[in-house]
Amino acid sequence: MKFLIAEDELDLQQSIVTYLERDANVCEVASDFDEALEKVALYDYDAIILDINLVTGSGLEVLKELKNGKKRAGVIIISANNSLDDKLEGLDLGADDYLTKPFHLAELNSRIKAVLRRGKFGGDETIEFNEIKINTKSRTAYIDDVPLSLTRKEYDLLVFFITNQGRVLSKEIIAEHLWGDDSDLMDNFDFIYVHINNLRKKMTSDTAKYIKTAYGSGYKFINY
C-alpha cells in the first residue's frame, strides 16, 4: 500500500514511516501544511495519516481539499487534542478514523488496515478477480488456489492492477505508486516493463492476458 504521513513532529513522522515500511508499504511524508496540500493534489494514496495541527496550517483544511478533489484515500486523523468538537468536525468532513496522541504504532497500523478493508476491499481481506485470489493480510496470491511465488513489487503490482481494473496506468503512475518519491530520481521507466513481464511469466497463460499493453500510454488490467 502507499501512504502519506502528514506530521510535523519529525521523530513521530519517522517512527510511523519505519513501522509501516516493515510491511513493504511505500511511505511519503509531508512536514507542514503546504507540503501536505501539494502532495494530496498531485498524488493518489491508499491512506493518509493526517495531523490536525500542522505547523503552518490546519490538517482539516487539507482534508477539505482532499474531499473536494474527490480523492479516494482513507484518512486517519491524529492529534494531541482530544477535543470532541475537533473529532466530530474531522469525521464530518470525511475522515475515516481519529486517533489521539500518544498512541501505539501497532494500534495505528490496525486502524489503517481496518480503513483499507472498509474502503477499497469492501470490508474483506480477500480480493478476488475470476480465478485470481489475493489475501491482503498475508500478502499472498493464488490462481485456481495454486500459490504464486511473487516478489514484493510483483505482489504490489498485481494488487494495483486489480484494484484499478479497466483504467490505463502509465509507467509514471505505476512507478510513483511502487516507489513513491524515489520515482522522481529515475531517468526512465523501462524497468517497469521488466516487472510486468516477470509477473506475466508467473501467471497462467490465461490470466496473463488480463494485463494488456496500451501502446503509447501504459498498461490496463481488463476482464477479456
Q: Can you describe this structure?
A:
The mean pLDDT is about 85. Strand 4 (about 55) and strand 5 (about 55-60) form a beta hairpin. The protein has helices at about 10-20, 35-40, 60-70, 85-90, 105-120, 150-160, 170-180, 190-200, 205-210, and strands spanning about 1-5, 25-30, 45-50, 55, 55-60, 75-80, 95-100, 125-130, 130-135, 140-145, 145, 210-215, 220. The chain is about 40% helix and about 25% strand. Helix 2 runs parallel beside helix 3 and helix 6 packs across helix 8 (about 190-200). The chain contains nine helices and 13 strands. The strands form four sheets. The chain has a five-stranded parallel beta sheet with strand order 2-1-3-6-7, with helices on both faces. It has a four-stranded antiparallel beta sheet with strand order 8-9-10-11, covered by helices on one side. With about 220 residues, the protein is of the alpha/beta class.
List the helices and strands and how they pair.
Blueprint lengths: L1 E5 L3 H12 L4 E5 L2 H10 L4 E5 L1 E2 L2 E2 H10 L5 E6 L4 H9 L4 E4 L4 H15 L6 E4 L2 E4 L4 E4 L2 E2 L4 H11 L8 H9 L10 H13 L2 H4 L2 E4 L3 E4 L3
Parallel strand pairs: 1-2, 1-3, 3-6, 6-7
Antiparallel strand pairs: 4-5, 8-9, 9-10, 10-11, 12-13
Helix pairs in contact: 2-3, 6-8
